[in-house]
Specification:
single chain, five-stranded parallel sheet, alpha/beta, elongated, 42% helix
Amino acid sequence: MSAAPPKTLLLSQDAGLLGHWRAALGRTTLALRQFDALLDPLQPGTTVWIDHSLPQLPAWSDPRWKRLLQAAPEPRIVYASSNPHNAQGMAALDVGCAAYCHAFADAKTLRQVRDVVASGQVWIGRELMHQLLNRTQIALARAPQVADTNWAIALTQRERQVAVLAAN
């Protein structure tokens, strides 16, 4: 007996988008039209695709997002926008979404997103990845440098004095 494929929930009121997602992701999907329909406990392995243009989508600070992300064994939320931009993608990742992509990406890309998320990884586009790496590099450069208290162990007394004078 083979295991059932992971369940996929599609959250959108756009019939064209739902058709596009179903064509790319397969027919083993269930379409929902309201965010609150997601708040029931999710089956393990469920991936939820959320359309950014969904009417009455709660703000990221709304406690329903936290509830949704805690309802799943691991966050498998794909947040998709028909007009993606980096700030929106960063917000989606910050709240705990596993992917951020263009809602109308080609079928090959949508399947790649599905597969990466299903494997427990995070998927983001190239431009957003560059922005994340740049932010990380800037944050590391700004981070206070921790002094290594063991720097002088292998030095003689005079070498330590010279090193301190040079540092000052």
